[in-house]
Amino acid sequence: MPEWTEADSATYRVIAEIAVPGRREMMATLLALVPFAAEDTFRILEIGSGEGLLAEALLDRFPGATLLALDGSETMREATRSRTSRFGDRAQVRPFELATLDWWDLMHGADLVVSSLCLHHLNDAKKQYLYKAVVERLSARGAFLIADLVEPLHAAARRLAADEWDRHARDQAHALGEPDRFAQFVAAKWNHYRFPDPADRPSALFHHLVWLKHAGFTAVECVWMLAGHAVFGGFK
Questions:
Q1: CB neighbourhood size of 167 (10 A)
Q2: How would you list the strands of the sheet with 42-47, edge to edge?
Q3: Residue 134 — pLDDT band, cuts 50, 70, 90?
Q4: What does DSSP say about strands 112-116 and 42-47: parallel, antiparallel, or unpaired?
Q5: What confidence tens digit (pLDDT) does each residue in 14-40 have?
Q6: Residue 47: strand pairing partners
Q7: Are 124 and 177 in contact (CB under 8 A)?
């Protein structure tokens, strides 16, 4: 599997504010989907924490929760540690390699497994194996929530996703008062639907939902989608 590099991490940190369509709305939607009350005590595992934005938001919103964040990039782990240090021992950060199996047992007993913009690096078969591993290790009240790229099944839908991604990146750059940042997004060839990258292997949304159901989740849902990015998941 082509590897994510520290250069990729550096590029992402520069353009992330404009490169993720509806970034704030996507995160807010994922947070709203968490099936626990603010006062509940529960354990979270995050697959691919990136800069730590989601980890921070989860710990802020759910003060009774603890979180273990996994990421394969040293600089991303450093960013997550910095962002979550104020939560003390409620937050832990560890290295992992997404495509391996040796971290799976860290999910044992977790009540919530989350992943944002990470799982599209796995091929279809590995996604299905992972979904089965998650449902087998989650607590009985557990949920698996995902925000990620999905693969359009028709050329017309792919063109639409590409156009919408560019439009949202341009609009977000202008909203920040930094229109030149859109040029950075284009130069980085970050729009997967225009510039396919062998490290990116998004799957069709329909397939994700079928795989989650077959893995053993009682309910599977997609609650948000924009420019080829979706928030979906499964509940035990």
A1: 12
A2: 91-95, 65-71, 42-47, 112-116, 143-149, 229-235, 219-226
A3: very high
A4: parallel
A5: 788 889 999 999 999 999 999 999 999
A6: 70, 115
A7: no
- Which tens digits make up the pLDDT trace of 51-106? 999 999 999 999 999 999 999 999 999 999 999 999 999 999 999 999 999 999 99
Give the pair of three-digit tokens for residue 24: 């704030």
Report the pLDDT value the prediction gives residue 113, as an integer from 0 to 100. Answer: 98
Query: Dihedral of CA 46/50/53/59: which sign?
Result: positive
**How far is residue 105's CA from residue 133's CA, in Å, rounded to a whole number?**
9
Task: Locate the DSSP E strands across the chain.
Answer: 42-47, 65-71, 91-95, 112-116, 143-149, 219-226, 229-235
Contact 131, 148 (CB under 8 A): no
Closest CA to 97 of 231, 4, 216: 4
Cα–Cα distance, 197 to 190 (Å, whole number): 9
**pLDDT score of 85:** 98
Give me the residues paired with residue 217 across strands: none
